[in-house]
Amino acid sequence: MIRELKTLLAVANYGTFAAAGERIGLTQGAVSAQIHRLEDALGFKLFDRTGRSASLNAAGREAVARAGELLQRWEQLRGMIEGAPAKGELRIGAVASVQSTWLPLALKAFRDEFPYVTIKIMPGVSLMFLGQVEAGELDLAIMIKQPFSPPRKLKWESLAHDPFKLLCHETVAGDDWREILLREPFVRYDRSSFGGRQVTEFLKANNISTQYVLELDDMEGIVQAVRRQIGVALMPITPHTSLPGDVRAIPLGEATFFRELGVVSQESLTLGSVTKRLVEHLKHAVRPS
User: Fold this and answer.
1) Does 182 lie in the same domain as 231?
2) Is the distance from CB of 128 to CB of 1 less than 8 angstroms?
3) Does 83 map to a domain?
4) 86 near 274, Cβ under 8 Å?
5) pLDDT band of 72, cuts 50, 70, 90
6) CB 180 within 8 A of CB 167
7) pTM over 0.70
8) 76-105: per-residue pLDDT in tens?
């Protein structure tokens, strides 16, 4: 019933079955089915239902309070045995740009230390990860820092600040990033992502109107689009970024802005020793010495 309890907390946090499902990656029907299973297991109703709406009743509100305590004890129980080989599964959300660069380095070091722990990497965008971590669907997520305050139940730990630069093919003339953006076709960083929103804000702040031709959320895809001379692009450059010889990165000078990457987890749940070690490996891998 752990999964169902986490779904109950999501419904309590977001107000409706539909809103909770959207944040934790479930359909409204799946959320409703989980709540019904939980009610059947408990032997009493948690919601007063009127037509298509449902609101927590007195028993439901009490169950929500107890569910938080139970989930916290469950997380503590998972990591309480010291000295024995750590086992189990960690569910990690990770944005696409880290999965093909430094994340495998961290996972290799972690696996060497904890060979009995399996890791499930869940793809997605940062906004989706917030809801999944809050609902307990993920143990933690590696994501881009949101442009707003995180939900109060979540905590943020920064990993890296990566500067955006203008990528262009070697045949593109000049080094003036503003002039190039105004002149050349533009490959846009997906606007639904936090990083893409940063690009949009940068263009607005600098009063630049681009000739938008392509939009995607894959860093390697952006690099290859620039290499094939589809257009130029604004992209964060990390210590792990490897550009082809025919692609150059132009600094933005005083206009430089940064993408902040970090780890988000639940504030109320003490990270187990295994999870803490994973975070340490992430910190080491993202900024190699």
Assistant:
1) yes
2) no
3) no
4) yes
5) low
6) no
7) no
8) 565 554 444 455 788 999 988 888 888 999
